[in-house]
């Protein structure tokens, strides 16, 4: 290609919006992440949303300023910074009130959004199924409704003249409703419609859950902080093709796959949406039915990136979210992922790291889902945990009830099997929901 042709070519791709990140370091807030770590994560979120981060600003605060979150001096500093480091949007690491966002935009003269708005935008980009799209749209409207601005003053009701009073005169009552009220009414109707559509989707999901329960297949839910490697692990175990990418919230919609364990037993494994610190309340509410999939699980696999610098904080975030969903008492197997990034990933080294972190973990397995390290140990650990939730039996099943032998083969675990003159003697364990069917044939 000649130089003259190159000179005539123009880049047609839309340039990325440039973002300035702002955080408040609140004194005595022991629950919060370190401000630098939290802003680093906010930068990853911004990158996932397709923004270019051009700088960060933080301020130590006794408490957030009720008008602008940060102090007025810091607001002026952020506004002045735009001449040195041009930016198109300011993103705050905390959720802003409607008045704070409005005051900040008026002072800085640029678009201002908060962490919640950013996460909602990412979810909107990544939702693929109808249910996911409905959930995200509902969350966005729930968040938007109280933040509508009274920008349509030219359509506000007018005080009438005539008669000298301050009341509204006949024929001078304005156009009927303001643009703000019209927007609120339209959004309110849309929210009601979305809730109806989600209720219909959830009814179908409930039928699906009932069918799964009747199948007797154990259910394993994979939970964890976003980008810990949950989808990669499901792909490895189920030989599936769930989207797995090195980015936050690569997958949102729950995915269920049938997985065969080494002992021959089949389980259903569900990958759920990744958790994150300060997951927006609107999203938790909209995704509650999806997250309740976790409540149906027999065992939870908590996938944790042991190499992440904030692994302790991520662990606590996941446990707190499980507590909010009231499933923290379910059997949990902690899966330390990405150990291929550790110099000496021996059990002794893993134990040392866990001890130093002080994580309250009962059972764990160290793996690399990407490099297929430790997967056999993980499968064995899953089988052991499922075995503990089964009922042990020795039964003699008459040949006339051979359908129960088939059921045991399909859903139970067999230690021994003997064929006698009158029937089949089985030793092993079956899921609790089937125990009553074998009780009449128990060997005394």
Characterization of the model:
It contains 15 helices and 13 strands. The protein is of the alpha/beta class. The strands form 3 sheets. It has a 6-stranded mixed sheet, with helices on both faces. Strand 8, helix 11 and strand 9 form a beta-alpha-beta unit. About 6% of the residues have low confidence.
What secondary-structure arrangement, pairings included, does this model have?
Layout: H1 3-8, E1 18-26, H2 35-48, E2 52-61, H3 72-84, E3 89-92, H4 98-108, E4 111-114, H5 115-126, H6 130-144, H7 179-215, E5 219-224, H8 230-238, E6 255-260, E7 266-271, H9 281-286, H10 288-291, E8 299-305, H11 311-324, E9 332-337, H12 347-357, E10 364-366, H13 375-388, E11 390-398, H14 402-411, E12 413-419, E13 423-431, H15 435-438
Helix residue percentage: 40-55%
**Shape verdict:** elongated
Strand arrangement within the widest β-sheet reads 6-7-5-8-9-10
Alpha plus pi helix count: 15
The ordered string of helix (H) and strand (E) elements is HEHEHEHEHHHEHEEHHEHEHEHEHEEH
Question: Would you tell me the structural class of the helices and strands?
Answer: alpha/beta
- Global mean pLDDT: 82
Structural Rg = 28 Å
Identify the notable features of this structure and list them briefly.
alpha/beta, six-stranded mixed β-sheet, 19% strand, 444 residues, four-stranded parallel β-sheet
């Amino acid at each position: 290609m000649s130089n003259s042709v190159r000179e005539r070519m123009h880049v047609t791709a839309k340039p990325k919006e440039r973002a300035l990140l702002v955080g408040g370091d609140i004194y005595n807030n022991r629950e919060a992440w370190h401000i630098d770590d939290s802003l680093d994560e906010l930068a990853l979120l911004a990158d996932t949303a397709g923004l270019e981060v051009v700088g960060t600003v933080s301020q130590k605060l006794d408490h957030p300023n009720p008008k602008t979150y940060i102090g007025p001096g810091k607001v002026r500093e952020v506004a002045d910074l735009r001449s040195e480091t041009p930016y198109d949007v300011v993103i705050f690491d905390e959720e802003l009130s409607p008045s704070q966002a409005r005051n900040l935009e008026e002072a800085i003269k640029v678009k201002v959004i908060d962490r919640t708005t950013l996460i909602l935008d990412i979810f909107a980009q990544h939702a693929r199924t109808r249910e996911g799209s409905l959930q995200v749209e509902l969350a966005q409207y729930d968040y938007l409704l109280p933040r509508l601005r009274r920008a349509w003053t030219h359509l506000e009701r007018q005080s009438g003249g005539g008669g000298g009073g301050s009341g509204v005169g006949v024929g001078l009552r304005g156009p009927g409703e303001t643009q703000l009220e019209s927007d609120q009414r339209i959004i309110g109707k849309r929210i009601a419609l979305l809730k109806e559509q989600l209720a219909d989707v959830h009814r179908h999901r409930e039928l699906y859950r009932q069918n799964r329960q009747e199948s007797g297949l154990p259910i394993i839910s994979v939970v964890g902080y976003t980008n810990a490697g949950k989808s990669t692990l499901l792909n490895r175990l189920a030989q599936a093709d769930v989207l797995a990418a090195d980015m936050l919230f690569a997958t949102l919609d729950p995915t269920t796959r049938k997985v065969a364990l080494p002992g021959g037993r089949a389980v259903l494994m569900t990958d759920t949406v990744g958790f994150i610190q300060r997951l927006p309340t609107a999203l938790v509410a909209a995704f509650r039915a999806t997250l309740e999939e976790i409540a149906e699980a027999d065992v939870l696999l908590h996938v944790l990136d042991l190499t992440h610098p904030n692994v302790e904080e991520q662990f606590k975030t996941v446990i707190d979210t499980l507590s909010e969903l009231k499933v923290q008492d379910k059997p949990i197997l902690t899966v330390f992922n990405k150990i291929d990034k550790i110099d000496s990933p021996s059990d002794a080294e893993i134990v040392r790291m866990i001890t130093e972190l002080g994580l309250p973990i009962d059972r764990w397995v160290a793996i690399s889902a990407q490099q297929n390290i430790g997967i056999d140990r993980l499968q064995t650990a899953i089988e052991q945990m499922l075995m503990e939730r089964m009922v042990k039996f020795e039964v003699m099943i008459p040949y006339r009830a051979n359908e129960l032998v088939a059921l045991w083969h399909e859903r139970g675990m067999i230690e021994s099997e003997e064929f006698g003159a009158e029937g089949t003697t089985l030793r092993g364990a079956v899921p609790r929901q089937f125990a009553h069917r074998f009780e009449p044939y128990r060997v005394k």
